[in-house]
Amino acid sequence: MRLDFGEQIIGIEGSMTIPPRRETTPMNRSPLNYLAALLIPIALVLIGVRLTSGASRSQVAPAATPVTGAELAAAPAEDTAVFAGGCFWGVEAVFDHVKGVKRAISGYAGGQLANPSYEQVSSGETGHAESVEVIYDPSQVSYGKLLQIFFSVAHDPTELNRQGPDRGTQYRSAIFYRNAQQQQVVESYIKQLTAAKTFSRPIVTQVAKLSGFYPAEAYHQHYLEQHPNQLYIVINDKPKLVALKKQFPDIYAD
């Protein structure tokens, strides 16, 4: 999906500036053409909003706190969690704004190809999903709390092999656990949410052992921070930060 707005091509992930087009025919400057030039971009924005709407859960309150895995560690430490929830720009931005998270890194996980490129992953043939590695202090934020945030505001876990306007297995919902304890907490929480009928559709999140995480190219890191006014970011990712601040004010970090 690509949206063309004159001098800038805006794609599902990324944009690039192109040289001005050469006019090969005289430009028709009628009022109708001016009106079309005004209305078409607005219509495309509304279509984008429509494509990314339809969440399967009320966005007023967060999903329930996990029964297991919500306890804080007794002493400062460093642990890692890996989540996949569609385009990594928005997921990374969410965890960048969580107290106790030291850093969030956009990358690739779930496939067999070592050190894949963005182009290879985007083909949908590597088995990798766009993912985010979250390095955090478990004495400040628990693994269970990260899961609660992931299921509440970072993505829609009921969308199979897609997320909003993005399609393909590389955009699937997935949690890659590092050890048996993380696996137990994840599986328990999904059962808890399912039993509570938190979502109107079944949760389709893949739960798999982490076999490797490969950081994405430098230009993908902190993408929202660097491109806050890009149309894709405004429509799909900034609302996640608004929801995070509203639903988790005690743990939101500016």
Task: Name the features.
254 residues; alpha+beta; Peptide Methionine Sulfoxide Reductase, Chain A
Structural summary, described in words:
α2 (88-96) crosses α4 (143-154), α2 packs parallel to α7 and α4 crosses α7. The longest helix has 22 residues, at 31-52. The chain folds into two domains: 2-52, no CATH class; 79-247, Peptide Methionine Sulfoxide Reductase, Chain A (2-Layer Sandwich), CATH 3.30.1060.10. It is globular and about 40 Å long. It has a six-stranded mixed beta sheet with strand order 10-9-4-6-5-11. A three-stranded antiparallel beta sheet has the order 1-2-3, with no helix packed on it. A two-stranded antiparallel sheet has the order 7-8. Helix content is 33%, strand content 20%. The protein is an alpha+beta fold.
Quick recap:
This protein is of the alpha+beta class and 254 residues long. The protein is built from 7 helices and 11 strands.
How many strands, which pairing sense, and closed or not: the largest β-sheet? Answer: 6 strands, mixed
Strand order of the largest sheet: 10-9-4-6-5-11
CATH-defined architecture of the largest domain? 2-Layer Sandwich
The CATH class assignment of the largest domain is Alpha Beta
Structural class: alpha+beta
Envelope shape: globular
Uncertain regions: pLDDT < 50 for 5+ in a row?
1-54
Query: Going by CATH, what is the homologous superfamily of the largest domain?
Result: Peptide methionine sulphoxide reductase MsrA
Order of helices and strands: EEEHEHEHEHEEEHEEHH
CATH topological fold name of the largest domain: Peptide Methionine Sulfoxide Reductase, Chain A
Q: From the alpha-carbon coordinates, what is the Rg to the nearest angstrom?
A: 20 Å
Distance between the amino and carboxyl termini = 32 Å
